Amino acid sequence: MTLSLFALQLLNGIEVGLLLFLVASGLTLVFGVLGVLNFAHGSFYMLGAYLAWWLAERTGGLIWAVLLGVPVMLALGWAVERFAISRLYRRDHLSQVLLTYGLVLLFNELQRTLFGNDVHGVPAPRALDWTVSLGEMQTWGAYRIFTSIACLCIAIGMRQIILGTRFGMRVRAGASNGEMLEALGVDVRRLFSVLFSIGTALAALAGMLAAPLTTVFPGMGESVLVVSFVVVVIGGIGSIKGAFAGAMLVGIADTFGKVLLPSISSAIVYAVMAAVLIFRPQGLFGEAQAR
Amino acid sequence: MTVPLLEATGLHTYYGASHVLHGIDLRILPGECVTLMGRNGMGKTTTIRSLLGLTPPRAGEVRVRGKIVTGLPPHRIAQEGIALIPEGRGIFPTLTARENLTVAARPGRWTPEAVLDLFPSLRARLHHLGSQLSGGEQQMLSIGRALMTNPELVILDGATEGLAPLVRRQIWSVLRRLRAEGTATLVVDKEVRPLLELGDRHLILVKGRIAFAGDSQEWRARAEENLVLLRA
Predict the structure, then answer these.
(1) What number is the ipTM of this complex?
(2) Element (H, E) at A35
(3) What is the rounded CA–CA span in Å between residue B142 and residue B164?
(4) Interface check A90 vs B, CB under 8 A
(5) pTM of the predicted model as reported, rounded to 2 decimal places
(6) How far is CA B41 from CA A97, A244, B88, B155, B207, in A?
(7) Closest approach of chain B CAs to the CA of A58, in angstroms?
(8) What residues 95-154 of chain A have any CB closer than 8 A to a CB of chain B?
(9) Is A182 close to B99, i.e. CB distance below 8 A?
(10) Could you report the per-residue pLDDT of A202-246, keeping only the tens digit for each?
(11) Is the pLDDT of residue B232 over 80?
(12) Which residue segments constitute the domains of chain A, with CATH numbers given?
């Protein structure tokens, strides 16, 4: 493997990891703070991608699709929390799996009805239709650079919000003791709604940004859901920092696996997870004791 | 006649099928200090949880300044000006001490500076996580965090339990100061003597019922019977 090929794969791995982080961060927050195991999280990614395709066809570009699609998905997330997820807060994981898996079926049906079952491509914005050459053989697409930078900015923004604002403070407090927060006069239900809604929009945004890279197809939600669970488990449930580290690890391992060991590439991600869990059963940044 | 700051009538509270409170009546006037005594498992914490809506009573009514709050979510009841310092202190372990103070703060005369004047030893610990503080520091922080919501009524469940004598004295003196400043308090503790010195009125709970209610003088007049009620 030449140095330039190595560099390209590394950059691709980081980009895959960053997109994965957008999905996994919502999943880990919803599990860590709301205590809900949300199987429908991958569906938001899928719906984001379909919405990006559908809106891009009609508005003339991905940028418009994102600007219109993110508010739509924020609203959808709010509605799903209000009418479905909020009924689960005092229930066990089995009820959560049943209901959120039901939502997966519902959203898949919605996708079939609204958008059909065809595979679609979404063109990258024209302004980003150029490449950077890496060495003699490899080129790196401008859209991939843009996606990586955008995701990185979002990740940094999330860190600032969680560590530096009162909303973030309350999210962290709610993760350890929601009842105490409520008893001090904070509307924890609304905090949860907002958080779930943001998590939904982040997953959808990842789907939108990924659309030009991966195409849009039925079932894309389920595959990203499984990998996101792997990321969350590697990073430690409920930890944003862990989700970031886990997403990077999985993104890079998956990308290199496909190049170096194509015959067993699909197993590599799980091998990484197993290896991490042998040494740190609670995940890289997880609390040793579940709450 | 003054409208009570908090008034509960006929509270019946259950945990699942088990009937814990059997008709609790309780009133706290503005600025008054009421104490709640009783052995373990007699319903002190359940009474507090019922007042705040954390475990809503199945029958009975809670009013704040005459307004019915039963059935409201706990944050709405707290916003009426009630702050809780729970058993076990309830410090957010992953937040710093400073964040614990500000996370639920509402505007008023209590500011971080005012709380640090009350508990100077917290000043050096502001940037430590809640989980890194000692029990005494956590209790001071929990009191400070409650005051930061600028309440009219502070509910203290287990004021000094498990704390060193020096910290206990400090907490009793803070409670006296709150009383002098006109903040109403509902205090639960195991130490009878300081409660009698501090409180205007006292309640003793036995198996979810009020077995005694009266002021310090009345309490002392029945001291022997009351001590039997409190003996473990």
Answers:
(1) 0.93
(2) none
(3) 16
(4) no
(5) 0.90
(6) 36, 45, 15, 18, 8
(7) 45
(8) none
(9) no
(10) 999 999 999 999 999 999 999 999 999 999 999 998 889 999 999
(11) no
(12) 3-279 (1.10.3470)
